[in-house]
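Quick one, probably user error.
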């Protein structure tokens, strides 16, 4: 019998743009996704899971299925439709009602301030590459703390800086769809970390009673063979995608080892990182005061040496085996025949989660606690007899929870787990056929159906042990 720590959060995660729908309702402003998705014409985010209208039912359902924590995010453009300036009262009211509904059901809200949804006018000004964006983000966060700070106990500054910059500037499947510009990605990542740090400082200096943290996607990187070159490739991707931000988060500066590699990657890609002395003052303050780290974990990667130009094919359709991911000055992700993958080519490797948790504990001993803020399995679920027999998902989640428990045995302080996602939601670059939810959403009718995994999750939460 494997017990979870006492008061463990059995949570489920959502994000505003992916769950709420209602992208043009009650004065909401545009994010950078709206026009882009319309022009592209593949996926319409306008209804998503209609959480904007159905949140009450969803939160009651969450509670009924043993869930005691939920990740929600505040859509910046519901509150400030233009990103700055005039406040939209309908948006302010919506989040009061949503947070109150969570609290009334005993489902603790973990509230993210930025989950991939920069307001369009600020995106046009350069997004995280512009100081106007960063100032506006700090002002928006301040507004949220003043408005909701007395009832929200857990804040998340930013969701997955690495995914944002990789999507925007390397893979190019997030607007502005730039490919292979690794220097821009590094600069933007640094700026996001400074923005995060400014918000932590603001929150702590105003002495709110809650906690504040950041969510990073942290995927372990392994060499496909033990050759020096393959080891080097894995180490480089690990530094770029994981350690660069963990150093900023917990040390308030970049270690010499990290900076050495990052500078070499920048040189090979004709770029330079610009920093200000004040950046490191903010980062050091936040490193000392941050309350928790959120880790999103879905997959790990196996790498081999690569010395060509960057080349990526994003598998957004679920056509197994179609992914290509090779970065100049870093390495190439390759298939490990011993490790199963999802239809979207994400290697299923729970050991990578255990290794990452132990790595954080050993490398950043000043971390206070960790929540696994996203983990789950995207699949092409089939609704039959008003449910889904999602045994593969149960198996995936069970293996990852077992990995967490193994890390806990090794002394890692993990206090909760949020399955991605509560119900099926809109997936940024994969649309609606990649489903993750505990609850199946029939998008045409917005009817919800608990999957087999929802019943299993409830039984586990009720017993506080792994089943
Ligand atoms: C994370 C994001 C989520 C969610 C999830 C699943 O990176 O924080 O917003 O989308 O990944 O990813 P996808 O929908 O691409 O399968």
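Nope, works fine. Designed sequence:
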């Amino acid at each position: 019998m494997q017990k979870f720590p006492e008061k463990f959060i059995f949570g489920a995660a959502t994000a505003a743009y992916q769950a709420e729908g209602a992208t043009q309702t009650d004065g909401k402003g545009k994010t950078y996704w709206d026009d882009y998705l319309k022009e592209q014409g593949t996926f319409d985010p306008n209804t998503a899971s209609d959480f904007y209208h159905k949140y009450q039912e969803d939160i009651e359902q969450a509670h009924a299925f043993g869930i005691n924590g939920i990740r929600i995010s505040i859509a910046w453009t519901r509150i400030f439709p233009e990103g700055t300036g005039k406040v939209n009262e309908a948006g302010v009211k919506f989040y009061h009602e949503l947070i109150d509904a969570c609290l009334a059901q005993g489902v603790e809200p973990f509230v993210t301030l930025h989950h991939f949804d920069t307001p369009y006018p600020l995106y046009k000004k350069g997004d995280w590459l512009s100081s106007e964006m960063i100032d506006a983000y700090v002002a928006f966060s301040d507004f949220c703390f003043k408005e909701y700070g007395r009832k929200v106990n857990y804040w998340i500054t930013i969701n997955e800086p690495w995914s944002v910059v990789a999507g925007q500037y390397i893979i190019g499947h997030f607007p502005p769809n730039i490919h292979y510009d690794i220097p821009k990605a590094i600069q933007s990542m640094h700026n996001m970390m400074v923005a995060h740090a400014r918000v932590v400082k603001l929150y702590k200096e105003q002495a709110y009673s809650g906690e504040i943290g950041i969510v990073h996607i942290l995927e372990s990187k392994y060499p496909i063979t033990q050759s020096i070159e393959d080891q080097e490739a894995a180490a480089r991707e690990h530094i770029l995608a994981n350690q660069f931000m963990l150093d900023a988060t917990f040390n308030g500066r970049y270690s010499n080892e990290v900076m050495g590699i990052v500078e070499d990657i920048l040189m090979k890609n004709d770029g330079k990182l610009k920093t200000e002395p004040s950046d490191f003052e903010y980062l050091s303050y936040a490193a000392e005061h941050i309350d928790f780290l959120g880790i999103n974990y879905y997959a790990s990667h196996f790498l081999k040496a690569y010395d060509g130009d960057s080349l990526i094919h994003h598998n957004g359709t679920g056509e197994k085996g179609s992914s290509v991911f090779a970065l100049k000055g870093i390495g190439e992700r390759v298939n490990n025949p011993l490790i199963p993958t999802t239809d979207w080519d994400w290697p299923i490797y729970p050991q990578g989660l255990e290794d990452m948790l132990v790595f954080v504990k050993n490398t950043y001993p000043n971390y206070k606690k960790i929540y696994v803020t996203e983990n789950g399995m995207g699949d092409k679920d089939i609704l039959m007899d008003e449910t889904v027999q999602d045994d593969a998902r149960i198996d995936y989640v069970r293996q990852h929870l077992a990995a967490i428990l193994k890390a806990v045995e090794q002394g890692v302080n993990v206090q909760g787990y949020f399955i991605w996602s509560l119900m099926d939601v809109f997936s940024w670059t994969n649309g609606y056929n990649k489903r993750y939810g505990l609850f199946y959403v029939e998008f045409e009718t917005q009817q919800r159906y608990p999957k087999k995994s929802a019943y299993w999750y409830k039984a586990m939460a009720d017993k506080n042990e792994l089943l």
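Residues 15, 18, 159-160, 163, 217, 296, 374, 378, 420, 427-430, 434 surround 6-O-phosphono-beta-D-galactopyranose (CB under 6 Å).
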